[in-house]
């Protein structure tokens, strides 16, 4: 961010060691440097405008990059992952339900055979003793099969129950994440609306201040803001406080001799430059 004071040219001469040149009061450093002298009221207005513009920039940044945006993204990601988990658990449940239905049908089939053969056995009409023994063996085999199937069915039902509990848990998590997501989303929306309102308010205050300043200065100020700069900067030394560009010793000393309300333009970033009073 070019708005923070910095001095990239660390070895630059400090204002306390001036070169042996005699500054000419009121002289322009270059032809490209349109100077003008502000009134004290205009100076105050410009300082206020710098302040408002910085505040606008910070609010604009917050508006465009909501603090909770990463949190919302994280919740959206979690919601998606939970949705996938829900699908896979639901698939497991469907498989187990099919398995259980098949086991129940198989048990029913065995029981039907047991009932049929028990009836034949009880009837006994035209059966030899060997037939009877054979029938009894068959019934016992069916009963053994039923016991085996029932054991498998029980295990399958237990797995189904576990999967259903898991599904309920996943669904509860989805509800929680959805609710939290809505809260965060609403929070972001409300904050953005509030910031937009504040930005509008600051914008109209800025317009009022600009109306009290020379149009040429306002044009340069806005040009620098459009480039991402602060518009104007108060100089604390021979460097542009907007972009860091070093101001030559000669120019700086010429400026030092001028009226404190004389403004210049940075040769590098065209920011309006005002000396500290
Ligand atoms: Zn500059």
Structural overview:
- 66% of the residues lie in helices and 5% in strands.
- By secondary structure, it is mostly helical.
- It folds into two domains: 36-64 and 207-275, no CATH class; 69-193, Helix Hairpins (Orthogonal Bundle).
- β3 and β4 (272-275) form a beta hairpin.
- It is rod-shaped, with a radius of gyration of 43 Å.
- The relative contact order is 0.19.
- Residues 1-32 have low confidence and may be disordered.
- The structure holds zinc ion (ZN).
- Zinc ion binds at residues 240, 242-243, 245, 266, 268-269, 271.
- Residues 240, 242-243, 245, 266, 268-269, 271 line the site of zinc ion (ZN).
String of helices and strands: EHHHHEHEE
- Identify every distinct bound molecule in the structure, by name, code or SMILES: zinc ion
Rg over alpha carbons: 43 Å
Strand content: 5-15%
Q: On the 0-100 scale, what is the average pLDDT? A: 89
The coarse silhouette is rod-shaped
**How many strands appear in the DSSP assignment?**
4
Number of helices: 5
Strand order of the largest sheet: 1-3-4-2
> Mind telling me which CATH architecture of the largest domain this is?
Orthogonal Bundle
Helix content: 55-70%
- The CATH class of the largest domain is identified as Mainly Alpha
Give the distance, in angstroms, between the N- and C-terminal Cα atoms: 25 Å
Query: What is the fold-level CATH name, i.e. the topology of the largest domain?
Result: Helix Hairpins
Which segments are poorly predicted (pLDDT under 50) over 5 or more consecutive residues?
Answer: 1-32
What is the number of domains?
2
Structural class: mainly alpha
Largest sheet: 4 strands, mixed
Keywords: Coiled coil
Pfam families: CT398_CC
Protein name: CT398-like coiled coil hairpin domain-containing protein
Region (Disordered): 1-35
